[in-house]
Amino acid sequence: MTTTTERPAAAPVPPSRPSPRRAVTATLLRWWRSLTAMRTALVLLFLLAVAAVPGSLLPQRSLSQSQVTRYFSDHPDLAPVLDRFYLFDVFSSPWFAAIYLLLFISLIGCVVPRAIEHARAVFAAPPPAPRHLHRLPDHRSLDSGLDGAATLDVVEEELRVRRFRVVRREGRYGPELSAEKGFLKETGNVVFHLALLALLLGLAGGKLWGYEGSILVTEGDRFCNTFQQYDNYSAGALVDAGDMSPLCVTLDDFKAEYEENLTAASFTADIGYGLAGSASRNTTIGVNSPLRFDGDRVYVTGHGFSPVFSVTFPNGDSFTDISAPFLPAETQTMSSEGALKLPDVPGSDEQLALQGLFAPTGSVQGGVLTSVDPRPLDPQVAVFVYEGYLGLDSGLPQNVYSIDQTQIDRGNLTRIGEANLKVGESTTLADGTVITFSGVKQFAAMQVSHDPGQLWVLGSAIAILVGLLGMLLLRRERVFARTTAGPGGAGTVLDVGALTRGSADTAPRFTALTDDVAAALARRARTEENPRT
Amino acid sequence: MINESLAATSDTLFSVAVGLYSLAVVAFCAELAFGGRTAPARELVAAGGGTVQRPVPAAAGGADDEPARARRWGMVAMALTALGALVQAGVLLTRGLATGRLPWGNMYEFGTAVVLVAVVVYLVLAVRTPALRHIGIFVLAPVVLSMVGIGLFLYASAGPLVAALRSAWLAVHVTTAILGFGIFFVSGIASVMYLVRSRYEAKVAAGEQPMSRIVHRLPGAAALDRTAHRTAVFGFPIWTFAVIAGAIWAESAWGRFWGWDPKETWAFIAWVVYAAYLHARTTAGWRGRPSAWINVVGLGVMVFNLLYVNMVSTGLHSYGGLN
């Protein structure tokens, strides 16, 4: 309470201007309050949902670089503008991060005070009964033949049977009782929101310390878990390449099985794996069953064919069994496209390349090769042979799976032959070079992933679900009762009121409770009248 | 491998189910037509053009002043709906038996299962709270439309599952996604009905004479809002579980538990929208109509996620069976 002092009436003191520091504090406090208000959290939730939309409607670099490239060539004017707003990297963009960080802070501001308050409430006694019990959503008055204390004893017993925490007080308006149960509802609420925070932390940790590398491995080949070996990799900011586990994997055999209607039934890879320098173990991995080893996971994410060629040059030198993976252009028939580059041709300054189509089961109609079956029943290739300069040392990165079109456009590469070949067939170029299609190997697209946050995220997700169930399915009930003397001093009037959160149909339960109380009161009154019977 | 005659039976049952639901719609219409004895417009125009304040029917809607003939039609409609649900369950059962797998491996089967869940949820609600029977036509009409759409545009003949779907997680993830979707379907319709009804009640309270007999017979706005909320409360943990199960499956199938694949993104958006709905209902200034709109948006997101993401965008969830 403030004490008022006598002031000279003539000079009312203007309210002094708050010091700048206090003004800043007040402003910050106001911002903090509005940021942590439920309304703000709602708006931020909506913003998050809306912000995620372009990430699904526009191609994303994280999902498919080639689709982004195509979008750029289809919309040369629009794409750079969209790119400036990070619309091809929505989920790693600063504005997406801004929204979820704000939501994160808002969530902390919401849930931490709530958790503290809840912890206090768990240990505190139920609050005193309100003055007007008949204003509570559920209310009933009962006549009792017992005195006030005995009546409340009966109520307390009924409530304790129902596992309420009960407190008796001598209130201002008569002896009263407060009872409470259902703390787990609020506990669920707090757990849910804290687990959301934990999940976000786990996600962030996984992104910072996690990595992912992918590589095409032909049967018989081996790779080790280093960034140098991967065709593609992405790593979090805090990944130390020296700490990566020295896992090495050999692809022994790859099998693709199909149903009668050529639906893919299973893809399995027999692999040998182990840490570099130690013994290798064998296992089979496939779709839905990766290898989990030492915090790393090894997946088969795709497969394809590598046609094998032998090239014999006019001077007698030859390359035997050279191959390159051809990427599936169509998963239904496994019709694949690729290129085999020969930068060092013996006895010549010109470089050589084959580019074309591979069909596991080929069918040539009108000179055009198509594939009719994903299984390698009758492998065929249709290749163009190019001679000239491949541009591999030009300093510009180029696609491994095709030859550089700009070199053809500039006239550096010229087409010197073309052929449709079955296994064992060969074609002879004008200079006498013989190219033989000698066979087919399978390759598997393999991926090694490392995400230290994964289990943390899973635990948080389970906690989210448990908290959610507690929050949504449990009720928090408060029951209050008070006795007053009956009209004219005869008997006792018992008022019972209840307040329930988390349930719509409270009336039947309240009626059941008060019915039981009334019955117990009647019973007790009878035994008091005739204690012998 | 595929039992063709069972597969054909399944297709026939699909048509039968559509027929039964259509008849149920007709019966619900008849119920409305005969239930209009107390049509508000006729009896309440006072002489001199003034209007008489008429108390808004309470939560029970027009159920208590219902003539026997309307009640009979209502029962017929309910029976037809229940029969339709049984036959529709038969569609999925025979498909499953014909293919020897869970019958939710493509969009046709998924959509059929979602609609079945929605019908069952409606039936359960209508049996437990008879006043809710009166939203029947607004549930069954979208159901018939959805079924026709599914049959025409999403149909895929019975076949084996693609390799990626051969996992125990299919039973967990897809089943819960179907349950969640079906429940949200009914919840969304209840919110639409709430929006219509609450406007009607506001007009009545303002002394106007809204002409709509159909809206007059709907349950009260409060009851509709409660139904929408309770179904969403029921559906939200199921949807949450479906998303988590999907993430666990994705971890073993695709090499990461979350990668912002279009389907994942929209599942996330739906989750956020429903979370917003549940929050909005307890936030001052958002109760009532604004929160109901959020629920309607949620249903829109769910439908968009099914149709657009599978048919237009390219992502990893391309199991629709449509080429």
Structural class by helix and strand composition of chain B:
mainly alpha
Instruction: Write down the overall mean pLDDT of chain B.
Output: 86
The tally of helices of chain A reads 10
Radius of gyration of chain B: 22 Å
Please name the defining characteristics of this protein:
heterodimer, A: 533 residues, alpha+beta, TATA-Binding Protein, 4 domains, five-stranded antiparallel beta sheet, 34% strand, disordered N terminus, B: 323 residues, mainly alpha, 10 helices
Walk me through this protein's architecture.
The complex is a heterodimer of chains A (533) and B (323). By secondary structure, chain A is α+β, with helices and mostly antiparallel strands. Chain A has four domains: 27-121; 129-182 and 479-529, 2-Layer Sandwich (TATA-Binding Protein); 207-302 and 448-463, no CATH class; 306-441, no CATH class. Chain A has helices at residues 20-35, 38-57, 65-74, 78-84, 94-123, 148-161, 183-209, 405-409, 454-473, 507-529; strands at 138-144, 165-171, 174-181, 211-218, 222-224, 232-235, 247-258, 264-275, 281-286, 291-293, 296-312, 318-323, 327-330, 335-342, 351-359, 362-365, 368-371, 380-388, 413-422, 426-428, 434-450, 476-485, 492-501. The longest helix of chain A has 30 residues, at 94-123. Chain B has two domains: 1-36 and 68-161; 167-322, no CATH class. Chain B has ten helices and no strands. Chains A and B meet through helix 2, strand 8, strand 11 and helix 9 of A and helix 8 and helix 9 of B.
